[in-house]
Amino acid sequence: xxxxxxxxxxxxxxxxxxxxxxxxxxxxxxxxxxxxxxxxxxxxxxxxxxxxxxxxxxxxxxxxxxxxxxxxxxxxxxxxxxxxxxxxxxxxxxxxxxxxxxxxxxxxxxxxxxxxxxxxxxxxxxxxxxxxxxxxxxxxxxxxxxxxxxxxxxxxxxxxxxxxxxxxxxxxxxxxxxxxxxxxxxxxxxxxxxxxxxxxxxxxxxxxxxxxxxxxxxxxxxxxxxxxxxxxxxxxxxxxxxxxxxxxxxxxxxxxxxxxxxxxxxxxxxxxxxxxxxxxxxxxxxxxxxxxxxxxxxxxxxxxxxxxxxxxxxxxxxxxxxxxxxxxxxxxxxxxxxxxxxxxxxxxxxxxxxxxxxxxxxxxxxxxxxxxxxxxxxxxxxxxxxxxxxxxxxxxxxxxxxxxxxxxxxxxxxxxxxxxxxxxxxxxxxxxxxxxxxxxxxxxxxxxxxxxxxxxxxxxxxxxxxxxxxxxx
Amino acid sequence: xxxxxxxxxxxxxxxxxxxxxxxxxxxxxxxxxxxxxxxxxxxxxxxxxxxxxxxxxxxxxxxxxxxxxxxxxxxxxxxxxxxxxxxxxxxxxxxxxxxxxxxxxxxxxxxxxxxxxxxxxxxxxxxxxxxxxxxxxxxxxxxxxxxxxxxxxxxxxxxxxxxxxxxxxxxxxxxxxxxxxxxxxxxxxxxxxxxxxxxxxxxxxxxxxxxxxxxxxxxxxxxxxxxxxxxxxxxxxxxxxxxxxxxxxxxxxxxxxxxxxxxxxxxxxxxxxxxxxxxxxxxxxxxxxxxxxxxxxxxxxxxxxxxxxxxxxxxxxxxxxxxxxxxxxxxxxxxxxxxxxxxxxxxxxxxxxxxxxxxxxxxxxxxxxxxxxxxxxxxxxxxxxxxxxxxxxxxxxxxxxxxxxxxxxxxxxxxxxxxxxxxxxxxxxxxxxxxxxxxxxxxxxxxxxxxxxxxxxxxxxxxxxxxxxxxxx
Lengths: 473, 473
What we know:
The structure is a homodimer.
Chain A (H helix, E strand, L loop, with lengths): L2 H8 L2 H32 L15 H7 L1 H7 L19 H4 L2 H5 L18 H7 L18 H9 L1 H6 L2 H4 L25 H9 L9 H10 L6 E3 L5 E3 L8 H10 L5 E2 L6 E2 L6 H6 L2 H4 L4 H5 L2 E4 L2 E4 L22 H28 L7 H11 L4 H4 L1 H28 L14 H7 L4 H31 L1
Antiparallel strand pairs in A: 1-2, 3-4, 5-6
Helix pairs in contact in A: 3-4, 17-18, 17-20, 18-20
């Protein structure tokens, strides 16, 4: 007999104690196991709708009750922190930083006012505040600014929406960019809510419905972060010039074919193409797109909180979150990766300024349209010098060459006309002097804007609040 | 008792059989183990000198008896196969492919003859054959072409070597580039045999002796694959213009400071800087150098034969050996990686041709020196559009801008002089027409060269053979 057997035969309560202890331990282990299984299934569960969301619900707060993590991180776009050395920590007055822009855009609204873009949070606020806009603005200008747009388009159709003015829909478009713009309210799948992108795919002979989930993680951004124009004098139909493809020449070919002109230059009388923000197009030319990386991989990387993995909806420069974005693939230090980005930006910014200087010199009429389109294509892109630095360099080199050709033609004319060169150059050393040079009445513009903000906007907001409070009932 | 015990007690020979079999198995295992250990130590042993190599032995065959794998792979450089779509499978007559070059180099020997470079195997043969060289050539031209150079420099000193002519040393410089150029004959360590590189480091305040082994795997290449000039009208002292750094502007600053001019343009009378092959410098500006990759990592990757790992001495385009080079780090398919390289090259070649066309138009005098230096800097680099495409784009953009400025000045002058523009352009559609346009007497050049090759060279080779046969005794 073993010692235990001896012990039990002498003191039988010991056996019962061992039995009881075992029961307790097994029970606790069972509880713990159940808890683990439950947490896992919680983490696997994609989401739970605690409060139903209407098909075209524009208010982020309603979506946010179901998705607090996404909602809270999205609202961090209110804290606009530009990581790039060319951004700085606050919004930059681009015209004050580089008064050449005033001259290049003479005859176009950007000469009045142009600040570096801020986070999605400010979409409605900033487009109301800029001197570029006022009451008779076409509604098309709102297409990318508000979750109210899909709602209105579902009611009135896209083409009718585009034909309206700000005046007519002022109280309807009040909610900033948000959940509704990219997500289906039932399945939360990504969806395209702006017809222009789907139509541009069609024009290229493609069907956007065949896009994979990973492609959609870029395409929802491509609804807005692209080159576009308003087609038709009264239709103002939002159109992407992608018929012939994604390169700067492809789009130029399209614009030339439809004889599109964004503005006639106030000094040179040249019909000018203004690039908007061809970010998706330039991104497609770069190595990250080539490797299948999506916008969201770097600008909305996954993170974990409380055992739940979710996509960080604080869209921002990846330089603000290198460990969550770049370092998922790249093993280099934060300092090295930051230097690599800055190096690319430095080289392209240098070429950008060379192109700019050449064109400002050629502002008097000459064949400056092609050169300016190429320069603007890169100047207007937000991330071109990182996304596709080689393509950006190629385009700027062509811009510089075309500006040179224009100035040669000009030099001949001036010499024959016996105009002494170099022409006495106006003082455009500050934004104010440059705006005066191109004859902008800035005081009147500012007074008009103040009236718009102080009288019109409060009316719109009041009406919108009344309308939305009824939606809540 | 177990069954075995029963068996043994009944049949004792069984025990002996088991014992015997065990002995045999253990013995064989021991033999196998010894063989494994021996093979491992063979593989670990760096090398074994079976035939001693003299301190300045120029003949690759002597080194090759000790290092058959390196020797045999090195001799594959005789099979020049250009992987790039811009190379083709045979040596390309660059002037015939692009007659613009004849005009751009009018007044310089490259307008006479310029073929795409071939493998190291052809170093002596090709420099003898080109129309650019003849008997009075400075010996400095040989510095990078032969293993006889370190031998001669050790005897007479570098500066005396540079002062000699081909005529004086014709029978001494006969062995192609080879082992001696990069390796110490005792330790086989990499070593710098050309003083220009060490002196350039000194000029930058650096000591090349502190270079790591990985750095040396690029620096031995940088002895030759760099920008250089011959300093002094009689000294012809081989010098790298690195005093201010590795950028195109740094070198221009140095050349301007020492008032260096490679040639005066035959048409425009402009003092021109000719770029040689700034490959190491451009490589340093790119992401591969930034990540610590050495020339040898891609152009001489490791391979295995018979359990021995060695560096493949068949220097060639990595596109010929993607699995051994690119795919060591990059997981993409060969097709994808090839496309990525071609995309970069396409964009930069496009800018290169834009710059070229601008400059040919400006060949009549104008301030074309800065533009041409920048164009040539990229045109003369072998791998710039892959090694550092963003830097290459930046430089070409500046070239185009400067060519434009020059042409504007020109346009003014021509208009005032009442010269009708565009100027009637000469027919330079072929190499021959372009050479005629710049007044080159090609027939005389070819006759002179034939005499040199048929009369002088055989004499040199005969003397060299006699001299070397004495070395063998």
